[in-house]
Amino acid sequence: MSHDLSALRLVDLEIADESRLNLLWIEGFIKGGSALEISVPGLPLRPALEALFDKVTHIPASSENVSGRACRIPAPNQTFDLVTLYGRRPSLPTLREILRVLRPSGVLYLAVRNRWWYGRVRVANPHPGSRGLFGGPRLVRTVRAVGFSVVRQYYLDPSLATPRDFIPAHRPSLATRELTLRKEGETGPMRRAFVQLGLFGFLYPGRLILARV
Amino acid sequence: MPGFETGRASLLGQLDEELGGGPRSWTDLIVVRNVGPVLSARPLSGDGVSTRGFNAILLSPRGTPSHYLKVRSAGNEAFLREATVHTALGRHPDARSMVTRARTFLHGPMRILASEFLHGDRMDVVLAKGKGKGVWSETVGKVIAASQPFWGALGQVLEKSGEIPAGSATLGEATREFATLRESGLSDGTVRTLSDRLREVWLPPVPQHGDFWPRNLFRVGEGWRILDFETCGSVDLPLFDIFHLIRGSVYAAGGGGAGTWLESWAAVGREADALRESVKPHADGLDQDQIEAALVGYLTLFSARLIRRGNPRNRTAPWIWELERLPEILGKPLVSQAVRGLSAQGPL
């Protein structure tokens, strides 16, 4: 009996792609309507979206339509039930466009790398456009200011690409998660120091925002 | 409850209904092991099915953890079995002190297994903290002694569910796994030697936990709890759980490189004496050949399981290495004497 391990690794990656959307299911948001993916290279959500929604539209997340000042999504007003942007920080014009194309009670699923993650200093910026990859606490305020009524923030760990943990950005939830890691012997002195000081925002590589119109 | 509900009950709403202690909000559910898609865009089979879903910690409205959840596809039959065995053991009078109470229910296309959250320390962490302080043998001995009723209860639960053990333990399955191990580098000579040890040996079938190691054992107060019943009853080789616990605990306590645990019960000293004393009741009635066959069977079956689950080479190599060394180690006089000391034949 031979064992093709390379095939298994491929399945692992595909499993990871689709598991990025498990939070939508947890929230009970399985509509079967239409979704827009503003797709970022290397972080696709397409297969999972196509399993959940009747109609899925894709546009690439170029710097003009995501970080630029003059963003235009080629769709009429109130077209989509869900818009996803996974791995790029949107500009204010882009957020307004997303709000425009979302239906009432539609949802924005937005994930960015955490600007304040302490491990960031160890990761070399991959290319000059890396400024649009990171987001901090201000992003949540911006999403609210644009007009989304319900905004929830989660931290993602260990990475945006393979989020094994979704932790609500709420002190008791973060403290419980860190206590569990400590009980499992998976925290070092530096991490425990951050937790003692309440600096949870430094611990996780990714942020996920779920926002409802 | 505010949320994104779209006319269908949210997961949190159902958890409040089933488990009580609500109302909870979105901040009370922490996903801690998101390992696969809840609804896959493509059909998955075999190990892919078993990795579809996530685990989670559920907080009470006071902000303290109340439950640990496992959420998997409703079509995952292995998970249904795990949930059934867990809930049955949690109600069994002999096992309930070691098994968390749990309940299982469906939510849309998913099955949820909710068990009480354990406020304690995992055994491997306890052992690592006690390195060098003589904690190892005392801890392992306590766990083995405390778990004795669990194995009896497991047998009763499986018998009641119709999974009656076969007339003999599955040594035949171990023999068939040599082909898998040969492809992963086990030498032909070792395969022949180990096969000889299994030939014409009969072992009584004793249902085992199947993954009884320090990461599945929690110290809560002065007692211990057992976790993860996925493989319960899939193995009925006597001493399988004991060997796995000893192997895992030696490494957790920092006890040397691959294979050192094999000689742990041949060592001289208080710790080794305590270990042999705690193992002896589980080897009751077995002779030396049977104990050695059980050891070969354990290493063979577990190595093959790791390989079939696609574990990388750096995880499976130590197991293959131990199998290669096993004939030599069992031939050492001290080890042979110690094994005989465990057996019904008694020490030389």
Could you explain the architecture of this structure?
The complex is a heterodimer of chains A (213) and B (348). Chain A has helices at 5-19, 22-26, 46-52, 63-66, 92-101, 137-146, 171-183, 189-196, and strands at 34-39, 55-60, 80-86, 102-114, 134-135, 150-157, 165-168, 206-212. By secondary structure, chain A is α/β, with parallel strands linked by helices. In chain A, strands 1, 2, 3, 4, 5, 6, 7 and 8 form an eight-stranded mixed beta sheet that branches. The radius of gyration of chain A is 18 Å and the shape is globular. With 348 residues, chain B is an alpha+beta fold. In chain B, the strands form two sheets. In chain B, strands 1-2-3-5-4 form a five-stranded antiparallel beta sheet, with helices on both faces. In chain B, strands 6-7-8 form a three-stranded antiparallel beta sheet. The N and C termini of chain B lie far apart (71 Å). Classes of the chains: A alpha/beta (213), B alpha+beta (348). Chains A and B meet through helix 1, helix 2, helix 3, strand 7 and helix 7 of A and strand 1, strand 2, strand 6, helix 4 and helix 6 of B.
Labels describing this entry:
heterodimer, A: 213 residues, alpha/beta, eight-stranded mixed sheet, globular, disordered N terminus, B: 348 residues, three-stranded antiparallel sheet, 13% strand
Q: Provide the succession of SSEs of chain A.
A: HHEHEHEHEEHEEHHE
**Major β-sheet annotation of chain A:** 8 strands, mixed
**Oligomer, anyone?**
heterodimer
Task: Point out poorly predicted stretches of chain A.
Answer: 1-13, 124-129
Beta-strand share of residues of chain B? 5-15%
Averaged pLDDT of chain A, please? 82
Radius of gyration of chain B: 22 Å
Annotation field: number of helices of chain B = 12
**Greatest interface and its residue counts?**
A-B, 47 and 52 residues
Structural class of chain A: alpha/beta
Task: Outline the fold blueprint.
The complex is a heterodimer of chains A (213) and B (348).
Chain A lengths: L4 H15 L2 H5 L7 E6 L6 H7 L2 E6 L2 H4 L13 E7 L5 H10 E13 L19 E2 L1 H10 L3 E8 L7 E4 L2 H13 L5 H8 L9 E7 L1
Parallel strand pairs in A: 1-2, 1-3, 3-4, 4-5
Antiparallel strand pairs in A: 4-8, 6-7, 6-8
Chain B lengths: L10 H9 L9 E6 L12 H4 L2 E7 L5 E9 L3 H15 L10 E6 L2 E7 L4 E2 H7 L5 H26 L10 H13 L4 H11 L18 E4 L2 E4 L13 H13 L17 H10 L8 H21 L4 H18 L2 H10 L6
Antiparallel strand pairs in B: 1-2, 2-3, 3-5, 4-5, 6-7, 7-8
Helix pairs in contact in B: 5-9, 6-7, 6-10, 10-11
